[in-house]
Amino acid sequence: MTSPFGKARIAVAFLFLVLAVNFMAAQTLNHPQGVSPDGKGGAVENAAPTGQSVTTGNGINYNGGPVMKANPVPIYIIWYGNWNGTGSNKAATRTAIEHYVGTLGNTAPMLIDSTYGDTTGNVSGNVSFGGSTIVSSSTNLSDRSLKSTVGNAISSGALPNDPNGLYFVLTSSNINETSGFCTKYCGFHTHATLSGSDIKYSFVGNSDRCPSGCEIQSTGPNSAATGQGGIDGMANVMFHEASEAISDPDLNAWFDSSGQENGDKCNFNFGATSTCTSGTACTTAGIAAGAKFNQSFGGNDYMLQQMWKNAGGGACVQHL
Amino acid sequence: MKRNVTFVCATIICAFGMLSAQTKKTTKPAPAPAAHQDGSIEGSPKIITATKTVGLFWDMEISLAEAFAKKDTAALDKMLPEEFKVVRPNVTGSSIGREDWLAEGKDNPKPTRITQMSVESYPDLGIVQFIGSGPATSGSKTGSKQYFVVDTWENHDGNWQLATRYMAEIAPIKMPARPTGKQ
Predict the structure, then answer these.
(1) pLDDT, mean of residues A211-235
(2) Which of A200, A276, A292, B50 could tie A249 with a disulfide, CB 3.0–4.6 Å?
């Protein structure tokens, strides 16, 4: 006759076996590459490192901070000022820029950014248009009120709270940014803690406010009329800021010994160009002005500065 | 009996250990680096895209500083007209003419390093402002001084010339630890 304790021993041993199997299975649920918050209360797995993520020796230095690795990086736009006004301050400009952002991902110029990475992975080179909101105002911005504008857009729910995204504040040409738009800069990027998240944001003003300072040509390939170069001027500066914000979002990742980021090293350096003629995707005004362009995607032509490639010794290039 | 109790206890302890291993290990996201504190009325840390005109005048100011350092007469003749003058705070309130300015001396500081440039540009006039720094000798000591400089450049048929330099020594400004390029 089997004793009760004998039966108990068998049951315990079986329990041990079951738990041991579960223990082994639990090992494969770990995430060796880690997860990051997705800004929506959940988490997404970080991209696994792809080979040597941190490549150096190409004229730009890695300073230890993170890059933006989302695929795509959502770009959100806050239209500030009067975008139902005159000149290039119109709804057509908003449509054109949002189309530009929506088609910029994985293009030849944007993929140059994929040569930058951190210890956990590389920039994807992909961006997307995440949505926009309009803030009608006639009040100039300061650095402080710019930050508040971004914060308000997030806290009000007009735009999502997304630490993996990039927020642009685009101002109409009647709006100044008092810390130096048009005298010192055409745009800038930075980051701040807003609604509890590390939010990366950029200011880009309508370049028609100061064409001699912020436009390579006063009539561009997407101009609606002669002398309205705002669409192309802003597209160029947005490309500069997006490439930099994605490769140096917290201002502690990629820049050279003089502090220049990848876009700074090629600022207003456009390389080889083509001329708008009939048969190109340029507007009538662009064709009439013989405007220049050097990139074509999404059914449009654009004039975008070159970008510093972190490979092959480094250089300003239009594509990899 | 004792052996059975011991065996059961050991098994239970092992079981609790295995159960704790069931918790999914998720790597806590690294805390975001502390955002810059924007307490300054002058503006928060940011990385700017310099204007085309800042780029243009930056190159000209660097060329001028190099021409001063090398005593490059040809380059100086091209960039400084006869009427060039420097206005600095001094006892007499007089401006310093071209000849006197080009002469060596501790009263004629010529900044060699430029930062924080901004430009108000008009068709034939550029008002360029920057913080300049350079070596300065006081007695037997050599150090570095900073100056607030405003240069007015005039365009004569495509040739930019420096008409007037306004400069004043300033108390040293602590520059950011990270160099900021043309900022």
Answers:
(1) 97
(2) A200
Structure tokens at A39: 């800004």
CATH number at residue B164: 3.10.450.50
Give the percent of chain A with pLDDT over 70. Answer: 83
Domain annotation covers residue B124: yes
For the residues of B159-181, what is the DSSP string, one character each?
A: EEEEEEEEEEEEPPP---SS--T
Q: Which domain holds residue A211?
A: 64-317
Token pair in block for residue B111: 């900044």
- Asked if the Cβ–Cβ distance from A5 to B119 is below 8 Å, we say no
Task: List average pLDDT for each run of 10 residues in chain B, which is 183 residues long.
Answer: 61 58 42 34 76 96 93 94 93 88 77 92 95 75 85 95 95 69 47
- Chain A CB contacts of B48 below 8 Å: 180, 184-185, 187-188
Among chain B residues, the shortest Cα distance to A198 is held by B32
Residues in chain B within 8 Å Cβ distance of A198: 32-33, 35
**Dihedral, CA of residue A19, residue A22, residue A24 and residue A26, to nearest 10:** -130
**For residue range B53-64, what is the model confidence (pLDDT) as tens digits?**
999 999 999 999
Q: Does B19 touch chain A (CB under 8 A)?
A: yes
Domains held by chain A: number: 1
**Range of weakest confidence among A24-28, A314-318, B72-76, B150-154:** A24-28
The answer to whether A191 contacts B35, with C-beta atoms less than 8 Å apart, is yes
